[in-house]
Amino acid sequence: MSQYKIEAGTGQYIGDRQEQQDRVALFGAAKAPGFMMAVLADGMGGRTGGAIAADQVIRTAHQLFDEFSPLNDNIDTMLHTIALEAHTIIKLSGLTAEKEPHSTFVALILTPSGTAHWAHAGDSRLYRYHGQAFAERTVDHSYVEHLIGKGQIKREEVVHHRLSNILVNVLGSLQKEPFITLGRHDGLKTGDAFLLCSDGLWQYFSKREMGVAIARHTPRQCAELLVDKARERAVGKSADNCTLAVIKLVAT
Question: Tell me, what's the pLDDT at 154?
Fold first, then answer.
């Protein structure tokens, strides 16, 4: 039995866009007491197209998590299925709507046995912290990360690279099937925390800044603080949609 309780909150800001095309949600599992999911999608593909894609990611995640039973189902398999089913439906939606919707995807599942599972496609990120100490984050499925992996550029050069916004993996692409990267952490304890966020947020913060904000505030306060600070730092630029979810494990 876990010795902590889960506190969570979400936040969004439309930025300088005409429409909010990010989506975020928190769910409990209908057939799995004690399990929870956070899922975030950053939709792209022209006006309204991105919203179609991101809505579908959330809808698919909710439906499959409602059907999930720990007695019969595997968490990682479910995460794969969420991404692949959403990908297929987004492609079909694009054909019928004559648009080209696509979306990133990042999801986190916490279990009552103290394990965290996550999956992602694209550049929406998951960060894991203990207290304010950074532990790890997902690696973007982007062209610049490909260049870093090949040693062709250094990580500090990414923010100024002219191709920094090019993704090599998304849901809904008509050109290629997506691949899903999975992660896991066992032994969750009081003080652990997770941040899911779109690129409209993480581009304005260091991982240390985000860790301090998470450790010192409730999830709702943290979400408000980070959104406000992102708005402040985006002044003079064309700010993207900004979306996040904060999940903290606190003492009972």
Answer: 63
Mapping DSSP onto H, E and C, the string for the chain reads CCCEEEEEEEEEECCCCCCCCEEEEEEEECCEEEEEEEEEEEEECCCCHHHHHHHHHHHHHHHHHHHCCCCCCCHHHHHHHHHHHHHHHHHHHHHHHCCCCEECEEEEEECCCCEEEEEEECCCEEEEEECCEEEEECCCCEHHHHHHHCCCCCHHHHHHCCCCCCECCCECCCCCCCCCEEEEEECCCCCEEEEEECHHHHCCCCHHHHHHHHHHCCHHHHHHHHHHHHHHHCCCCCCCCEEEEEEEEEEC
Q: How far apart are CA 23 and CA 51, in angstroms?
A: 8
In contact, 211 and 133? CB cutoff 8 Å: yes
Cβ neighbours of 99 (radius 10 Å): 17
Look at domain 4-251 and name its CATH class. alpha beta
**Which amino acid type is present at position 117?**
H
Residue 15 is predicted with a pLDDT of: 86
Tokens of 12: 């969004």
The pTM assigned to this predicted structure is: 0.93
**Do strands 125-130 and 133-137 pair parallel, antiparallel, or not at all (unpaired)?**
antiparallel
Low-confidence ranges of the chain (pLDDT < 70): 1-2, 46-48, 95-98, 149-164
Judge whether 204 and 122 are in contact, CB under 8 Å.
Answer: no
Q: What is the pLDDT of residues 37-62, one digit of tens each?
A: 999 999 987 656 899 999 999 999 99
